[in-house]
Amino acid sequence: MGRVVRYIGVGGFLGAGKTTALARLAGYYTGKGLGVGIITNDQAKNLVDTENLQNEGNVVKEVAGGCFCCKFHDLIETIEGLRSTEAVDVILAEPVGSCTDVVATVIQPLIDAHSETIRVAPHSVLIDPVRLVNTLMVDRGGLSSNVAYIYQKQLEEADILVLNKTDTISQLDLVTLTGYLQKTFPGKKTAAVSGLTGAGFPEWLAMIESGDPVGGNITDVDYDVYANGEALLGWLNAVVGLSADNVFVADSLLIDMLSHLKTNLTAISRETAHVKLLLKTGFGNAVANLITNSHDPVVSKGVSMPVTSGVLVINARVEIDPILLKETLREALDSVSKQYGLTVRIFNLESFKPGRPQPTYRYAGPVGA
Ligand SMILES: Nc1nc2c(ncn2[C@@H]2O[C@H](COP(=O)(O)OP(=O)(O)OP(=O)(O)O)[C@@H](O)[C@H]2O)c(=O)[nH]1
Ligand SMILES: [Mg+2]
């Protein structure tokens, strides 16, 4: 018993802006004098998100090797660790961006068996406007139907739909997209925010803290379709040492590498879900992201001081065979190595496709219903 922690889960597809939003939420709760712990989650280790959030001074723990639903006991152990040894009041949790059925497999078991120590907040699902338009409103934007199925299911199970990145769209598009969400997913609360600027966060926080019923949207999920959708995604995590005789600018190198990758993926019609590059340098970490082939890569954390070396962490999630992903990434790395005169040392590299989701628990209906 003892301390009761607040569990706030923020889901959504790869690249929707979950980690960026969690960092801002962490700042909000820390500002109120509360202890905050963040739990990241992925199929593999060496996460850009963990490195990024830790670097900003957050208390971060990883659940790796599968999504929260398949690693439920690890999730509980991690929450317990944060609760008892880190004096945390609020836990912000980011499930893997290719994971769905979180309400039936994570939220409900938390409510059912852990309510004495964990108070679960409504389940928020973040939405990138471009991905929303491409996946549900146009032609799936290069994603296969089974991957789009996962996307659709993520939105269906939300308590709160959070249209993110509103700084990138016009007021007219904002009205159109929130109207579309309200019509397509009736009965849900809808927030419109920017993780980058903080716009809309007070309204979203009010929804999180509202005391409204939690986790009521358990949807039918066809696990064959879901597993196939996951298996269509290629995953690659790597840690690579880079050194050069001449100085280079970290931001430019990352953008050049992602641009090269984007060109090659576009040429073979393989849609990017999210490729993150983090370069650890003596002047801090530079981070760049590619979240779709239809947009250019961006620097989300810049290092403008010239450097001669760094450690590159690569997290790539693309709808592609993992072997082809490895080759395509290798090409991009070779290309920047030549361009910048780099010596490359691969410390660790794994590429794979996620296995079939096998949740520890699955609740067919809300607890107490
Ligand atoms: N313009 C803009 N960009 C944003 C915003 N929120 C996030 N981003 C950018 O979107 C990209 C993805 O953000 P992340 O926070 O890493 O997304 P994520 O959902 O955690 O991604 P995964 O962990 O791969 O599932 C990064 O380039 C961010 O800088 C926002 O509100 N506005
Ligand atoms: Mg993330």
Could you give a short description of this structure?
The protein is of the alpha/beta class and 369 residues long. The chain is 37% helix and 28% strand. The mean pLDDT is 95.
How would you describe what is shown here?
The chain has 369 residues and is α/β, with parallel strands linked by helices. The protein has two domains: 5-229, P-loop containing nucleotide triphosphate hydrolases (Rossmann fold, 3-Layer(aba) Sandwich); 233-352, 2-Layer Sandwich (Alpha-Beta Plaits), CATH 3.30.70. It contains eleven helices and 14 strands. The chain has helices at residues 18-31, 48-55, 72-85, 102-114, 129-137, 145-156, 171-184, 201-208, 223-231, 250-267, 322-340; strands at residues 5-12, 36-42, 59-64, 90-93, 118-120, 124-127, 160-163, 189-192, 233-249, 272-281, 284-290, 298-301, 306-319, 342-352. Strand 11 and strand 12 (298-301) form a beta hairpin. Helix 6 packs across helix 9 and helix 10 packs across helix 11. The chain binds guanosine-5'-triphosphate and magnesium ion. Guanosine-5'-triphosphate binds at residues 12, 14-20, 49, 97, 164-165, 167-168, 194-196, 274, 289, 291, 298, 300.
Keywords:
single chain, alpha/beta, Rossmann fold, Alpha-Beta Plaits, 8-stranded parallel β-sheet, binds guanosine-5'-triphosphate, binds magnesium ion
